[in-house]
Amino acid sequence: MPILSIIAFLPALGAAAVMCIPNSRGLSLAKWVTAGFMVVDLVIVAGMALSFDRGAAGMQFIEKIPWIPSFGINYFVGVDGISVTMIVLSALLSLIVVFGSWSTDHRPKTWFVMLLLLEAGMNGVFMALDFALFYVYWEWVLIPMYFIIAWWGKEDRSYVSLKFFLYMLLGSVLILLGILAIYLHPQGGTWDMVELANRNFPVGFQMWVFGLFYFGFAVRVPVWPFHTGHSDAHIQAPTAGSVTLAGVLLKTGTYGLIRVSLPMLPDAAHQWAWFVGAMACAAILYGSVVAFWQPDLKKMLAYSSVGHMGFAMLGIASGTQEGLDGAMILAFAHGVITGLLFLVVGMIYDRAHTRMAPDLQGVGKKAPVLGGMLAFAAISSLGLPGLAGFAGEFLVIVGAWKSELPKFYTVVAGVGMLLGAAYMLWVIYRVVYGEPTETVEKSMPEARPIDLLTAGPLMAITVIIGLNWNVLLDFIDPAIKILTQTLVRS
Amino acid sequence: MNILVAIPLIPALVFFLFFLLPRATRTKMLFLPIGAMAVSLVLSLMAFSTVFPGAEKLAEHGAQFTSYTIGVIGGVPLNISLRLDALAALMLLVVTIVGMAVQVYSLSYMKGEERIGWYYAVLSLFTAAMLTLVLAGDFLLFYMSWEVMGLCSYLLIGFWNTNDEARRASIKAFLTTRVGDVGFAIGLAYMWATVGSFDIPTVLGSAHTWGPGVATAIALLLFFGAMGKSAQFPLHIWLPDAMAGPTPASALIHAATMVAAGVFLVARSLPIFEASGVALQVVLIIGATTALLAASMGSVQHDIKKVLAYSTISQLGFMFMGLGTGNVSAGMFHLFTHAFFKSLLFLGAGSIIHSLHTQDMREMGGVGKSMKVTTVTFTVGTLALSGIMPFSGFFSKDLILDHLWREGHYVIYSVALASAFLTAFYMARLWFRVFSGTPRKAGHAHESDMKILSPMIVLALLSVLAGATTLVFGEFLGSETEWPSLVMGGASTIVALSGIGLGWALFGNGRDPEAVRARASKVYMIVTNRFFLDLVAEQYIAGGYNRLSEKVNWFDKKVINGIVNGVGVACRQAGTQLRRLQAGRVQVYQRLVVAAVLVLVLVAVLATGV
Amino acid sequence: MTVGLPAFLLLAALLFSLGLYGVTSKKSAVMVLMSLELMANAVNINLVAFSRFLTPEKMTGQVFAMFMMVVAAAEIGLGLALVIALYRQTKTVELDHINELRG
Question: Domains in chain C and their CATH numbers?
Fold first, then answer.
């Protein structure tokens, strides 16, 4: 059974189904159909993850069908442990987002179509093993995201959606150039991403192609100083857009580095490590410092993502088993936790119609459950052991110290842990704690069942991963081990 | 189920249950956390009995051990484990006894509080984390529970979070300890890179092979973490502010257990410090500095809880001095006795605050007549802390002084003696102000109920009796301890008595020595301003960070985003200029085409070299 | 002296240049169309000349020229129809006044 294709195309099929719903029954039916398709997709993903052979090396569930034979392009998909975790994340957050936007009333049909298309693209990116297919999916995800921001965003949506799209496209162009460079190189000549990892490209070639890929992926991650497209997008995007953008789309960047740059260009990865690490450290410090001052909660979260993804980039730069394991755990955990944060902030915004921290003091007193959820998310985000955020950050720090990177990178990451705690506690201080302000007093009803359904699973996952890293490491570690062996060999 | 797992797990389960329950249900189910605490206490006693009387029995049976695979790195399982040895068994007793006392006490102290269920939930989580920490068989689990304790401390300090002081104090506490934790985490990374394991016996066993440079670095990084948690100079600034939390929580977390975790960490990893040598000196110096500075600051506070907070900092300094001599017993014995008498003092202070509704000693007075039980127990605590024979503090403090003298640290010894003098002085000052004289502004006190008094009585008994265990204690931890010698004990008793005497002379019978304060106004000003350390931390470090953040924000908005938008604007400008060419006149286009063709032909011709 | 290929090519080039001048500079759309015809005929001359001098045994060029004439006739018909349509819209055939395509 072509299980991966089903996972990727079921949401697209769902999108077609939602489009066929007559307008008169738009909202009520569309959300149920969407949720139905996504639940089924999530169940299939879970089945796929459970039947995935965690002990075995290499790609599994491979499907390979000629697509454009004249260029040797195949429809080639398959997953290893890294992909599995990312697909789970994508399917999970997509479903959560549907619950999070259960009562969307502006063009509901189109909205759910976009969410379904987005999920299809995100699932696809993480399973494509043919460079051409990878690039198609890589671009695919941008289009629903563009419309989500452009049609359901806040006041400045048209400016921001265009800026976001163009910025992302800039990165994509660099990646396309990289892909073509590899394909046209005498030792390339194939689109097969698994096979390309075995071609030892000359070091000089690797160096500049790595640069293309690095900057291309860096725009997606986003690495400082390429983050302004994201931070603007987050402010204007609707909650669901922010959740998927920060939760899954950013991860395509780190995933790309791990899937493309490290295995295909290991020598360059080694040579460039100091630079990638330095940029990661800059992102950690910069993101944390800027996040601290932000009164706008969503902007604060956007910058916190810059900081956290800096940790993941540092882990990637380290090239050690610990660092890369940590980077991938962090990618997953950040998806869950930041998704939770954006959702809760969205709930608060829906009630108070403001996201400005100074107007929102005392949510915890007026609505203890809602405030508690925000506090929980903030505390997981600052890396409390026993919750998901810790495992990644800790392993990255351990890996960075063990690697050949300068030791002060690790110290910077350590300081980043401190600064990360600073802005998250500052959020609790300003929003959860204190006497309720007038706005909060008037407009902050307690969390509804649908809110609990939205946030509850993410909170549970945060705890489960925090108490048992193996939930993720069982999948990630063998795949990373193969990768680190490639890196050592070079 | 393994007893080691059960001890921390039971309170942890109560926390999870309370986390999920609604507020009203929690309030009705307070018997759960107290029951869980009691079960943990019983189990801890059982665990203790399997280890007692110490090293020999342990060597015979081997330490109880259980492990759990939390992750897998490069195919190698990463285990966290619980291990019961003498040190852990001892700490189990301290944590569960004080924890039990505090939980019973809180029933009355926190009665009627809207969020009492949450308070108990956090207490349970704290207990679970602390019990995990003392049982931890590896540094990873140690660090994890260490951080969770920090969170509980944060939550309890900020329990009354509508009060701005409490909100601020909670952040200050978390971040200041986190500064230390950064060092701890990096130390762990260094340890992993060196040994490839977090397992405590493995790490300690190989410490002497690392070479002094690595050992010093790792030891100092771990000690940096301990400085944050145990409030050592200059990271002590959070503890006095932490007194904004509920008093029983202060007694448990900020006096008896969590703040002692740093001492425990150093005691645990003492072989690393010994392998380094230099690190032990640093521990000594930091401990001595803290003991003296904190004692002096404690002498000028007016808030009864802050006096006790500075006293705690100072006593933790004593413990570090004890460990700095390279002797586990010296530090740990003081930790052991201090846990009882300091939590007793806090609970006593809580009893008084509960009755008078003020923490300011200047408003108190004459409490001795109306609160008999509180007065007696508090006096026991005061004498124990001041180091008066035969109370437990005398024995443990003397052990530290004795080791300092014997190892030849004469300067540190004299600093310790001076701190002991100040300790006796500020406790006398506190005692005379609160208990003697006549009632002042706060009015007449009335005795608290039995839920408050009975834990205090138990702790008072322990504070008296703990000193008698001096010899057994040393044997239990596997290092020699002796009764205080006549000379050493005599010296410290004289110092303590003269401190109390000075306190009586200045503050006895309701006196308030304006004259002394005026004569030493400069010194007094510096000390009351906490040596300006808090000012530096809040104004320059925290405030400076805030300003930096604002500046960087401006930079981000104007420069980085400006460049990005600038590219966009440039593109649009170029477009505006170029569209002039599209005048809509067909013939203009034709001319352009012709010109272009001509140029191309020219290029082609030139290129072919004709 | 015989008239060789260069002479025909020269004639065609002259004719083409005349046409090009007309296309780019005449104001009236009708004149532009006529100039276009000149250019087309210059091409025809080239075709016939090349065919006659380079491959005299084949008639390819001449056949092409025949096709061109037919196409040119159709083109002029279409072109004039467009001009008339334009005239109905704008009441002018002056190309300078027709700038609806301005960007």
Answer: 5-97 (1.10.287.3510)
